[in-house]
Amino acid sequence: MAVVSIVQNADIELAVQEAINLIGGIENFVRPHDRVVIKPNLVFALPYDTGFTTDPRVVQAIVQMCKSADASDVIIAEGAGGTDTKLAFKRCGYSELARRYDVRLVDLNESQTTAVDVPDGKALQMLNIPNIILESDVLINVPKLKLYRDTNWASLAVKNLMGAIPGKGEYSRTPSGEFPIKLSRAFWKPEGRFFLPYHQQWWSPRGEKKRVHTNLAEGIVDLNTVIKPSLNVIDAIIACRDIDMTHTKGEKPMELNTILAGRDPLALDCIATKIGGHTPLDISYLKRAAERSVGESDYNRIQVVGTPLDRIVEAWKTGLANKQGNSKSTS
């Protein structure tokens, strides 16, 4: 039986603590002298209040809990796909967090790697995994709740491991490469709210991320068979349905003030997708993860504890209704 906790609380530190306590407490995951790697979602150099990136206050609470469990080393590691990771650390509030709590920041795009076999790989038979991930005692996966607009897609715990392998993306003025993605004007137009000088209209993955994109659904599942977090904590503090970088319409994010946690990333994602009214097995990589037994997807075998899921679903619907009403009244 997989256990998923949900906690809605405007006090972020308490929300994170309670969510982890409901699944056994930090001591169930971190032991004295462990080396802990915390992996947020910082795909772009965008502040957390956009709803695009993991809130540093969530990671701060996890850092504090790890230190209270007497971890010997706490590292925040990310390999941003859409920006320079160091810029993301600075802009997203992680540089200040690292200074305050004396933790290391590691750019996984620049880390030494080891070739690891993918024994049951469908898209890949080998992946180059950063040594800092392989050598950690505990990997804590801290994705952002990203439920895409009007499509069967989501970016949650299972997909967040894409940033655990090297490969900063490449921008161009024209479509190039095998997997070009046309960005929203909000990124590549000077007047766009996410514009940076190096942004261009087209983006393509590179490095190991590019290899995973050759067959994205199977590649993501392959990745999850060789990198297995000890703990997954989803940041749904500031939620935004408008998070697709190809269709950004500038909607204001809403405060959902929710944390979800679990040991099983697939079970966690199956519950999290319900918040936005998605059917998880309609999402290609979650369907393949279920078929390949990466985790639990049977709701009869997932125990949800803490704040009732229905309450979060209603908060999501109410938040969207309020946003739509406000947009109509101001148009």
Fold and architecture overview:
The structure is a single chain. The protein is α/β, with parallel strands linked by helices. The chain has a single domain, classed as Rossmann fold (3-Layer(aba) Sandwich), CATH 3.40.50. It contains twelve helices and 15 strands. The chain has an eight-stranded mixed beta sheet with strand order 4-3-2-7-13-14-1-15, with helices on both faces. The protein has a three-stranded antiparallel beta sheet with strand order 10-12-11, with no helix packed on it. The longest helix is centred in the C-terminal third of the chain and has 22 residues. The C terminus is likely disordered.
Features:
331 residues; alpha/beta; Rossmann fold; 8-stranded mixed beta sheet; 3-stranded antiparallel beta sheet; 12 helices; 15 strands; disordered C terminus
Largest sheet composition: 8 strands, mixed
CATH architecture: 3-Layer(aba) Sandwich
Summed up, the domain count is 1
> What percent strand?
15-25%
Element pattern in H and E: EHEHEHHEEEHEEEHEEHEHHEEHHEH
Helix-strand category: alpha/beta
What Rg is obtained from the alpha carbons, in whole angstroms?
Answer: 19 Å
Numbering strands along the chain, what is their spatial order in the largest sheet? 4-3-2-7-13-14-1-15
The level 1 CATH classification is Alpha Beta
Percent helix range = 25-40%
How many runs of DSSP E, i.e. beta strands? 15
What does the average pLDDT come to?
93
User: How many helices in DSSP terms?
Assistant: 12
Question: What's the overall geometry?
Answer: globular
Report the end-to-end length measured between terminal Cα atoms.
49 Å
Low-confidence stretches: 327-331
Q: Which fold name corresponds to the CATH topology?
A: Rossmann fold
